[in-house]
Amino acid sequence: MTLTRRLLGSFFEVATLILHPVFGDPCHGSNRSQGQGDRKERCVVTSDELIYWACGSSVLEEEDERGVAHIVEHLAFSATKKYTNHDIVKFLESVGAEFGACQNAVTSSDDTVYELFVPVDKPELLSQAISVLAEFSSEVRVSTDDLEKERGAVMEEYRGNRNANGRMQDAHWVLMMEGSKYADRLPIGLEKVIRTVPSEVVKQFYRKWYHLHNMAVIAVGDFSDTQSVVELIRTHFGPKSSAHDPLPIPHFPVPSHEEPRFSCFVESEAAGSAVMISYKMSVDELKTVKDYKDLLTESMFLYALNQRLFKISRRKDPPYFSCSAAADVLVRPVKAYMITSSCKEKCTIEALESMLIEVARIRLHGFSEREISVVRALLMSEVESAYLERDQMQSSSLRDEYLQHFLRNEPVVGIEYEAQLQKTILPQISASEISKYSEKLQTSCSCVIKTMEPWATATVDDLKAVVSKINSLEEEGSISPWDDEHIPEEIVSIKPNPGNIVQELEFSNIEVTELILSNGMRVCYKCTDFFDDQVLFTGFSYGGLSELPENEYFSCSMGSTIAGEIGVFGYKPSVLMDMLAGKRAEVGTKVGAYMRTFSGDCSPSDLETALQVCFHGILIFPFLNILFS
Predict the structure, then answer these.
(1) Is 150 labeled as catalytic in the residue annotation?
(2) Closest C-alpha to 76, from 22, 114, 37
(3) Of residues 49, 65, 150, 358, which has the active-site annotation?
(4) Which uninterrupted H or E stretch holds 540?
(5) Under 8 Å CB-to-CB from 224, ≥6 apart: which residues?
(6) Which residues, if any, are the signal sequence (predicted)?
(7) Is there a contact between 99 and 132 (Cβ–Cβ < 8 Å)?
C-alpha cells in the first residue's frame, strides 16, 4: 500500500521476481503478468528503467566478518564469472547510468540492495541488465586479487563516514539498538576487518547467504511486453542452482526499556544545535482493513502533531527554529516515532521541554475537532491527487510498494482501491482515536533522547531533570489546553469587480493562447497532457535588484525570504496553512536581478484559490504591493 508516508525498510525475503507496468493498476491491470520460476521465484510483471534486486545484510555477519556484507557489494561490480575487469561498470556507463557511492547499491543492517537503471527501448540492454543481476546472485568472483583492489574503495567510504555527522549517527544508533546484535553490526564495519579480512571469509559469507531463497527482483518500466520480461528473467535465473537446505534468516530482537536513555553529543564540527526524541516499538502488521485504519490514524496523529510543532516555530521567540515528527522502520522488528528539532545555541533544554510538553498536552487534552478536520482534508486532497495522476506516477512508487509487499507482506491493492478505502475510512476516525496515539510517546516507552551541540551546554542530568519536570506537570494536570489561532473563512473577503478580455491571440505553432485583459495584464496559457492534476503558473514584472542603490541591495535581496517567514500573502504561514487545508495550492514569490515574479503549483480545481492568494498578496498586502506594482 502506498499511503502518504513511506517507511524505511529492509528487503530480505523469499526468492521472488516482480515486474509491473507504470501505466495501469498494480493489482488488477491488464498489463500485469505473473509466473512461478523453476527455482521458487515468483514473477509479477507490470512495466521504467528500473531493475531492483536485494540480498545479504550486515546483521548476519559474525564478529570476524564485520564489514563483509559491504565488501561483497563492492566485489559484485568488480568481477563475476561472466563479467571481468569492471565490465559491469563499463556497461552501466555505456547506457548513461550513474555510477558511484550509493548510486547502484546500498548495504544496510537488514539488506543489500542493487539498482540498475537502464533504457527499456533496447531489448538487448534489458537482457544484459537482468544477466548482471543473475550474476550477482551466485557468480560474484571473490579472489585475493579482487579483494585487495577493492579494499581501498571500501576504506575511502569508511573514512568518509568518520566526519562529525557520521560519528554522531553511529553513536546514536548504538544507543538506540543497545542490547541487540544490531548495535554491533553497523554496515560500514570495522577498519581492521576491511584491511585484513581474508578472501576465504568473504567467500564463505557470500556462499552462506546469497541464495535465491533470500532474494527478490523487481523490474518496473514501460515494457512493451511484460511476459517477455518474465521469460528473460527465467532465461537468466533459471539455470542457477537453488540451495537444497538454505539457512533461514534469523530474527534479531531489540529489547524494550522503561527507563529513557540519554546522550549529549558535543561535536565542534556540528552545523548547529538539535534535539531528537525517539520512541521505539514493534512493527505493526498491515493485512486487514482494520490494520489500514490504524495506519491512517497514526498518519493523522503525526500530521496533527506536525501542525502544532510548525505553529510553535512561528511564534515570537520560539523554542526552536523548526521541529517535526515522523514514523520510520529502523530495522525489521522495530519502528520508532521520532521528533526532531533544530534550535539556537544553548537552547537545547528549552527545545526539549517544549517538545515534551506538546506531547503531554495531547495526552491531557487531545486534539480539537477543527485540527482533525484540517488533517482529514489534507489527506483526502493527497489521495485524490494520487488517484487523478494514477497513470502518471513515478516508477519508484510502484517499486517501493512491492518492496513493502515482500518486506512486511503488505497487500498490493492499487491506488483505485486505496483511494476508495481512504475516502470511506477517514470520516470515521475521531479526534479521540487520534489523540490516543500520544500514549505511545511516553518516556517510559523505550525512549531515547539526544542533543547535538558544537559546544557543551546541556548535560545528561539536565535532560533527566526536564523529563522529570514534564512528567510531574502532566501528573498534576498543570499543562493548559492548546490555544489555537483564529482562522478566517475566506482568503479574499471582499471580491473585486471583474474585468474583461479585450483581445485574444492564438499562436498555433506552440499551441499557446494569449489573452489581453482590460487592466492591461497579458495572460498566456497552454494545455498539456503532462499531469492530470497540476496547473503551473508564473507572473512577472520587469525591474528588480539591479535597479537598486548598492547600499540597499543586500537588505532587499533578503526581502522575499523574510516576508515568506512572516507571511508574504497577508496571512501568517501558520494561518494560511489551515486556510488552504484540503486544497492543493502552493504559491511563492521571488525578486531577481531584472524582474519580480510570483509562481504557483495547484490542482485545476484549486486554481481560483491559488490566484486569490496571489491577488490578496499583490494588491492588498503592502509589501507585495510595493514589489509588484
Answers:
(1) yes
(2) 114
(3) 150
(4) strand 535-542
(5) none
(6) 1-24
(7) no
Q: Is 595 left (phi over 0), alpha (psi -120 to 50) or beta?
A: beta
- Beta strand 585-591 with 595-602: parallel, antiparallel or unpaired? antiparallel
Q: Which DSSP string do the residues of 477-506 spell out, in sequence order?
A: T-SPPP-PPP--S-S-SSPPPP--EEEEEE
The Cα–Cα gap between 52 and 114 comes to 6
Dihedral over alpha carbons 23, 25, 30, 32 (to 10 degrees): 80
Cell numbers for 202: 568473504
Burial of residue 435 (CB within 10 Å: 0-12, 13-18, 19+) is buried
Among 266, 238, 267, CA closest to 137: 238
pLDDT tens for 180-212 read 999 999 999 999 999 999 999 999 999 999 988
Long-range Cβ pairs for the range 150-153 (8 Å, 24+): 150/71, 150/74, 150/75, 150/78, 151/194, 151/195, 153/74
Q: At what angle do helices 199-209 and 144-160 cross, to 10 degrees?
A: 80
CA atoms within 13 A on the CB side of 161: 17
Is residue 294 classed as helix, strand or coil in its secondary structure? helix
Amino acid letter, 429:
I
DSSP reduced 3-state for 112: strand
Helix axes 289-313, 348-365, angle to 10 degrees: 130
Least confident of 232-246, 277-291, 342-356, 608-622: 608-622
| CB of 256 closer than 8 Å to CB of 446 | yes
Tell me what the mean pLDDT of segment 545-568 comes to: 83
Furthest-apart CA atoms within the chain: distance in Å: 82
The answer to whether residue 439 is catalytic is no
The residue with cell 556507463 is 93
What is the C-alpha end-to-end distance of the chain, expressed in Å? 48
CB 112 within 8 A of CB 52: no
Q: Which residue, among 194, 219, 256, has the nearest Cα to 41 in the 3D structure?
A: 219
Q: Could you give the domains of the chain? A: 14-23+43-238 (3.30.830.10), 261-476 (3.30.830.10), 501-628 (3.30.830.10)
Q: What are the φ and ψ backbone dihedral angles of 481, each rounded to 5 degrees?
A: -65, 165
Cell numbers 533461514: residue: 248
**Residue from 13, 65, 73, 474 carrying the catalytic annotation:** 73
Residue 363 grid cell: 495526552
Burial class (CB in 10 A: 0-12, 13-18, 19+), 425: middle
Q: Is it the case that residue 112 has pLDDT exceeding 70?
A: yes
- Do 280 and 256 contact (CB within 8 A), yes or no? yes
The DSSP-derived string for 374-388 is HHHHHHHHHHHHHHH
Task: Give the amino acid at 168.
Answer: M
Which pLDDT band holds residue 559 (cuts at 50, 70, 90)?
A: confident
Summarize the chain as % helix, strand, coil (round to 5).
45, 20, 35
- Is there a contact between 354 and 361 (Cβ–Cβ < 8 Å)? no
- Cell 520460476: give the residue: 37
